[in-house]
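A student in our group prepared the protein record below, which I am reviewing. What it holds is a sequence and that sequence's fold in C-alpha cell form. My question to you is simply how this chain folds and whether the C-alpha cells agree. Do not assume that whoever made the record got everything right. I have pasted the whole thing underneath without changing anything:
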Amino acid sequence: MGISLSACVLSVILSMSRIGTIYIVVCILLMYFKSKRERIVLALIAGILMVLSAFLVKTDSTEGRLFILSRTFQLIMEKPLFGWGTNGFELQYMNVQADYFATHPQSHYAMLADNVRHPLNEFLYVASNYGVIVLFVLCACICLVCQYYKKNRTEEGKLGMEILTGILMFSLFSYPFHYLFVWIMLIYALFLVFANFITRKRTRRWVIGGSVVLLLTLGYWKARQYCLEKEWLEVEEASRYKSSRTILPQYKRLYTKLYDNSHFLYNYAFVLREAGKYEEALQIAKECNLRLADYDLSLLLGDINSDLRNDDEAVSYYTLAHNMCPNRFAPLCAIYDIYKSQGKREKCMNLIKEILDKPIKVPSRATMEYVDYIRSEAKNYNL
C-alpha cells in the first residue's frame, strides 16, 4: 500500500502538474490536521500555493489559461442565459479567438495561442454550452450534496466527499469529465454520501430500479459508441497502406452512422481531398464546420478551395486559420503561394517580410521547412 501510494505521488510530481501536486500535499496534510481551525488554515495555505504556482511556475501556461478564460467569458456574455447549445464551445470559441487577434495583431498572447476545444474549466464549459441557468442549477446541486453530508455524517460519506472535492478541484483547472473513470468515481462518491438514504426500504427499490435502467442505457450507448469508433479506427489505419480511392467506400458507409461526429467529418474530408475528390471534400468539410471551429479545419478548407482554384475563398480560410493561431507558419505560406501564382509581387514581398520577422514558438522540422522555403523565395525579390 505504501509503495503504491508513493509511486502515485511521485508520478504526479514528476508530471509537473501544479494542481495535482497541490492537491496531493493538501490530502497528506489533511491526514494529520483534524480540527476545523487547522483545516481553515490549510485551505488558506492551499490558496496561497495555487496563486504562487500560477505566477512562479509555468508562467506562459498561466498567461495562456488567463487568455482562454477571458475569451470564454466573452463567449458566455454573448448568450448568458441559455448558452450556445451542445458543443457550442467547440463551434464558437476559435472564432472568438480569431476575432481578437484580427483586431490585436501585436498582442503578446499571439505566441501562446493554440487550438482550443475546452476552456480548461468544466463549469465555464457548462455555462458556454447551456448558459448560467444550468450552471446555477449545477452549483445548487453541489450545495445540496454538501448540506446533506453536513447533516448525515458517516465514514463512508467522508470518503465520498473527499473524492468529490478532488473532482471539483480538477474541474476548475482541467476537463476531468472527458474520461469515463471520473464519471465512475463521481457515481461511487455520490453513493457513499447518500448511502443511508439509498438503503432505506422506501427508496431502495426505486433507486435500484432507476440505477439498473440508467446503467443499461449508458452501457448500450457507450458500447455502440465504442464499436463505431473501433470500426472507424480500423478504416483509418487501413487508409495508411491502401489508396484513398480504395478506402473511400468504407468511409462513405461510416458517414451514415457518424455524420454528426466533427472529428470523423474532418478525417473524411481529408481522405476525400487526398483522393482528388475536391468537391465532395469541400461539402464534407463545410458540414464539419457547422459543428466545429478549428485551426486545422480552416487550414483544410483553405487547401481544398486552393485545389479548386477558388483563390478568394482559400485566402479567406487561410487568414482565419492565421488569426486563430498567429504563431503558425502554414497559413501565411499558403497565402504567399496563392499571391505568387496571381503575380501579386507587392503582397508577396510584404508576406515574406512578415514571415521572416515572425518569432518561432517551437522549432520543428515542418516549421523550419516553411522558413527555409520563404528564405529561398526572398532571394527572388532581392530581400
Summary: The chain has a mean pLDDT of 84. The two ends are 66 Å apart (CA to CA). Residues 315-383 form one domain. The chain is about 75% helix and 0% strand.
